[in-house]
Amino acid sequence: MLRKMTEIIIYVRKDGIFYFFSIFVAWYLTQNNINIIYRTNIKNEKNKIIIPFGVEQQEILFSNKIYRMLDNKSNFYKFLTKINKTNIKLIKTNIKLIKTYDEKYIKNNGENIKKNFIIKPNDGFGSKGIINKEDYIYNLIKEYPEYQIQDIINNDCGYELSCVCKNGKIISSICIKTKLANRSVFSYVKGITGEVCYKKDLLKFAELVLKEIKYNGFIEFEFIKDKNNIYIMECNARISGWVNNEYYYEQIIIPYLNEFYNLSIQSKLNYSKNQKIIFSDFDSRVNLIYNMIFDNKKFDNILNCKDFFYDFLHNV
């Protein structure tokens, strides 16, 4: 239990994005007799306990612009390419980079091949806006300047590694293995489950990258595996929105609170590496939140719907 403070702020965006994920963190913490309040501004909350949701929230809380760079798919890959040339330990992890195409490819007179490519918006999330398209690569680079264009990996499975870090050191992590769709991205298929696993090479890769930038807070790395290799796809510089599971929260949220705020929250679940988990987007409660905020445009922002969410929180 908490020693002194019992109030935790969940810091979210005004437009409601990621709010429907945070509702489950709030639900989990309320089961531990912790009071939750929501804020869309933390200018006067510096002495409070804060869980940031979203890239911008981490950027403000930790006063660092590294989060936005990492969350941009093309910039993240450029960053990896740069450190991959000098960090021998990173190379030895055997995590591969997916072949990526941009203006530099044209300037270097790369072959103008024609085949199917995967095209992802640099600032996309939740697999939204992703395109599979067959064309000459020069045409695609010119047509999609704000997208990341890559080869398609015929995947065997995928891995999602979520970490909480302090000054570049991983405090705690959880890795989830799942099946992917054929389009080389994580698949939001109803009823899909994942399996908690331990992958030493993925964790070592994350440790080296995070140490390089002295990372603070939450981060998620997404990997894809074919028959022979594991590739890094992207990272999300925030709490993952994938999982609605108490084991996940206990491995990620509780260590963050204990380490960053010197709290003592007792773990009461028995963590199992074979634990099956269900991704949150398929839970009917998440669909309810998502539909009310996004599809029906019922609420202009979360402040207008706080009474609804208060009732929702205490009746799940």
How would you describe the overall organization of this protein?
The protein is α+β, with helices and mostly antiparallel strands and 316 residues long. The protein has two domains: 7-74 and 155-313, 2-Layer Sandwich (D-amino Acid Aminotransferase, Chain A, domain 1), CATH 3.30.470; 99-152, no CATH class. It is built from eleven helices and 14 strands. The strands form three sheets. The chain has a seven-stranded mixed beta sheet, sandwiched between helices. It has a four-stranded antiparallel beta sheet with strand order 5-8-6-7. It has a three-stranded parallel beta sheet with strand order 2-1-3. The longest helix has 16 residues, at 246-261.
Average pLDDT level: 78
Helix content: 25-40%
What is the topology, as strand order, of the major beta sheet? 4-13-12-9-10-11-14
Domain unit count: 2
| Quantity of strands, as a count | 14
Largest sheet: 7 strands, mixed
Give the CATH class of the largest domain: Alpha Beta
Regions with little confidence, pLDDT below 50 for 5+ residues: 1-5, 182-191, 293-306
The CA-CA distance between the termini, in Å, is 22 Å
CATH topology of the largest domain: D-amino Acid Aminotransferase, Chain A, domain 1
Q: Given the C-alpha coordinates, what overall shape results? A: globular
Provide the β-strand percentage band: 25-35%
